[in-house]
């Protein structure tokens, strides 16, 4: 394996900032060709999955390394439906959380607390971990929708076991069934966000799992990592920016001004892609389609204009978080749920990577390149 540095205590090379380009694990879950703009899950091109697959099928693929046969998919759907019930203690806790709380913080806390009610918690065998992964994948959407309803003074809506995860989430959030096309767009959005190799949150999850801490600990850490604006938190920040810009005429001056001030424009740039992110291709199309369906193309058109200015000024492409923002906004989803929705999808990739880590584990413990002083004398406190 290609690694950046020697493991001996004395050999210290130049450390790539942010571990850029460092290969830190072997994985058969997914790969990215950042030059050609190709993303695969277990060898299957993301475009084929977006065209033909469902989120549930992708969950199976990420956990088992191959597409399910019909009976296996049915079995997974049944297991997910059977696992949807969130323990009453967690729902009680959600009722007591301040309404103003950030839903990502709520999700992080709720996922951590799920372990109290799971007899498999603290086990890392494949069988127990698959049961936990199933519970987490089934329960994250229920928790996010329940908190949104509670903070709006409404009772949570129970999931319908016959619905898929995408349709169920929109149903639980609104208390009414979404349209078929909207539910399919949401399902594809979940497919597109499911996995992305060793991104920051997945890496976090693997580092925690590699200590043989359990899956709840690893996923709680991964949610924390996803929440930051340089990672999954960017989708909410994109929509805030679009609302602040407000009109297509304001796009050019706003973006130029932000760049002149050396500010990051949310939803642009990527550590791996140097060309179009293949997921943005789909989400751009969904942003337009949802805008057309709602008779409001403003956010899509502003996004196109931002894209044009960013390409001209910085040569930067939109990432997965850019067009998901206006797509979800046109679905009427509150801004602060965009990142929890990312987690509802990425739980499949996180758990797949955690399973892979447990299966062939070694503690992840790199070295730091020490750049501080040495041989500094200890000065007693009264003499400093
Ligand atoms: C699901 C995801 O996590 S996708 C990423 C979501 N995050 C965002 O959209 C936040 C905005 N984007 C960014 O901050 C970055 O592009 C990241 C964090 C995604 C990648 O960061 P890095 O690989 O570390 O790139 P880095 O921040 O070093 O940027 C390289 C150069 O491009 C510029 N740049 C990168 N992204 C942006 C941006 N969004 N807006 C303006 N300039 C940018 C940097 O200022 C830097 O320019 P310089 O060399 O002149 O100083
Ligand atoms: O891969 C990354 O660095 C960020 C990420 O999670 C994604 O793009 O989906």
Automatic annotation (TrEMBL):
Gene Ontology biological process terms, A to Z: carbohydrate metabolic process; tricarboxylic acid cycle
Domain of life: Bacteria
Keyword line: Acyltransferase, Transferase, Tricarboxylic acid cycle
Keyword Acyltransferase recorded: yes
Keyword Acyltransferase listed: yes
Pathway linked to the protein: Carbohydrate metabolism; tricarboxylic acid cycle; isocitrate from oxaloacetate: step 1/2
SUPFAM superfamilies the record matches: Citrate synthase
CDD domains: BSuCS-II_like
Name of one Pfam family that matches: Citrate_synt
Entry GO terms, CC: cytosol
Enzyme active site: 270, 321
GO molecular function: 2-methylcitrate synthase activity; citrate synthase activity
Signal peptide: none
Catalytically driven reaction(s): oxaloacetate + acetyl-CoA + H2O = citrate + CoA + H(+); propanoyl-CoA + oxaloacetate + H2O = (2S,3S)-2-methylcitrate + CoA + H(+)
PANTHER family attached to this UniProt entry: CITRATE SYNTHASE, CITRATE SYNTHASE, PEROXISOMAL
Homology family: Belongs to the citrate synthase family.
Name used for this protein in its record: Citrate synthase
Protein source organism: Pyrinomonas methylaliphatogenes
């Amino acid at each position: 394996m290609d690694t950046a540095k020697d493991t001996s205590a004395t050999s210290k090379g130049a450390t790539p900032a942010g571990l850029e380009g460092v290969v830190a694990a072997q994985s058969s879950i997914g790969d990215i060709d950042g030059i050609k703009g190709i993303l695969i899950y277990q060898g299957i091109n993301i475009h084929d999955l977006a065209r033909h697959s469902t989120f549930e099928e992708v969950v199976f693929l990420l956990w088992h390394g191959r597409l399910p046969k019909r009976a296996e998919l049915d079995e997974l759907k049944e297991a997910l439906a059977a696992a949807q019930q969130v323990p009453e203690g967690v729902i009680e806790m959600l009722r007591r959380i301040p309404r103003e709380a950030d839903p990502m913080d709520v999700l992080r806390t709720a996922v951590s607390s799920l372990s109290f009610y799971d007899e498999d918690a603290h086990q890392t065998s494949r069988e127990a971990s698959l049961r936990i992964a199933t519970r987490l994948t089934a329960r994250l959407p229920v928790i996010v929708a329940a908190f949104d309803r509670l903070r709006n003074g409404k009772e949570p809506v129970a999931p319908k076991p016959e619905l898929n995860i995408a349709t169920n989430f929109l149903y639980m959030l609104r208390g009414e069934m979404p349209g078929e096309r909207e539910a399919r767009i949401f399902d594809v959005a979940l497919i597109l966000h499911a996995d992305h190799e060793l991104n920051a949150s997945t890496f976090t999850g693997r580092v925690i799992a590699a200590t043989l801490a359990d899956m709840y600990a690893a996923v709680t850490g991964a949610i924390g990592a996803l929440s930051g604006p340089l990672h999954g938190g960017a989708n909410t920040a994109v929509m805030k920016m679009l609302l602040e810009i407000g009109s297509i005429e304001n796009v050019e001056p706003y973006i130029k001004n932000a760049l002149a001030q050396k500010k990051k424009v949310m939803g642009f740039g990527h550590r791996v892609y140097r060309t179009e992110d293949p997921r943005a291709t789909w989400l751009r199309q969904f942003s337009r389609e949802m805008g057309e369906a709602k008779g409001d193309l403003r956010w899509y058109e502003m996004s196109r204009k931002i894209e044009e200015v960013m390409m001209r000024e910085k040569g930067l492409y939109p990432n997965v978080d850019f067009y998901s923002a206006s797509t979800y906004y046109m679905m009427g989803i509150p801004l602060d749920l965009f990142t929890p929705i990312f987690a509802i999808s990425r739980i499949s990739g996180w758990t797949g990577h955690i399973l892979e880590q447990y299966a062939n584990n070694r503690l992840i413990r790199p070295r730091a390149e020490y750049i501080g002083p040495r041989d500094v004398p200890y000065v007693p406190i009264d003499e400093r």
